[in-house]
Design a protein that fits this description.
This protein has about 170 residues and is an alpha/beta fold. The chain has six helices and three strands; from the N terminus they run H-H-H-H-E-H-E-H-E.
Length: about 170
C-alpha cells in the first residue's frame, strides 16, 4: 500500500504466503515429507490460505464481525511481528474506507483496534511505523532478550525517537 513503508521480507512472506506455496519452498518440502512419514493430515481447506487472506475473509465480512466490534491483535515473538502486519492491513483498510466515503472522515478502525506484542522483532521502517499513529500499539520487551533487537537497527528502522549510542539503542 503506498505510504505504508517497507517491512522485513521474511515476515511479509510468512504473512502473505498460502499453505500450498509454503510447501513448495525448501523448508516446505521437508515439512511435506515429515507429514507423509508421520501420516499427519494437511490442515482443513479454511486454514490453507495465507494469514492475510484469512484475516480479510473474516474481518471484512460484516456477517461475521460487526463494524463496531473491538479488535485486539496480540502475538509473541514471530507472532508479534505478524500481529503488526495484520494491524497494518486493518489500518490501511480503514483509511481506504474513510477516504472513499469522505476524505475528512476518520479511520473506522482507529478507535476499535488495539495491538499488543511481546518480545516481537522489528518489522518495518519509519513509514511503516507511521501507519500506526492513530492506532493503540503496545510493545513489551525484555532488555535481555535478543529477539526484539533483530533485524539490526539501521537508519531505515530507527524512529525519530531512537538513537544509536555507544551504550546501545
Amino acid at each position: 500500500m503506498p505510504g505504508a513503508g517497507f517491512v522485513h521480507r521474511g515476515f511479509n512472506a510468512i504473512f502473505e504466503t498460502s499453505f500450498a506455496d509454503r510447501l513448495k519452498s525448501s523448508r516446505g518440502i521437508y515439512t511435506s515429507l515429515k507429514r507423509k512419514a508421520l501420516r499427519i493430515q494437511p490442515p482443513p481447506e479454511i486454514r490453507q490460505h495465507s494469514i492475510r487472506e484469512t484475516l480479510e475473509s473474516i474481518l471484512f465480512n460484516s456477517e461475521l464481525v460487526s463494524p463496531n466490534a473491538k479488535i485486539y491483535i496480540t502475538g509473541h515473538s514471530l507472532g508479534g511481528a505478524l500481529a503488526l502486519l495484520a494491524g497494518r492491513v486493518l489500518a490501511n483498510a480503514g483509511r481506504s474506507i474513510a477516504g472513499n466515503n469522505n476524505p475528512a472522515s476518520e479511520n473506522p478502525y482507529s478507535a476499535n483496534l488495539a495491538i499488543c506484542t511481546f518480545a516481537a522483532p522489528r518489522v518495518g521502517d519509519n513509514a511503516f511505523k507511521s501507519v500506526f499513529n492513530d492506532i493503540s500499539v503496545f510493545r513489551y520487551v525484555n532488555t535481555e532478550d535478543v529477539v526484539p533487537t533483530v533485524p539490526p537497527a539501521t537508519s531505515r528502522l530507527l524512529g525519530d525517537d531512537m538513537n544509536l549510542t555507544p551504550e546501545g539503542l
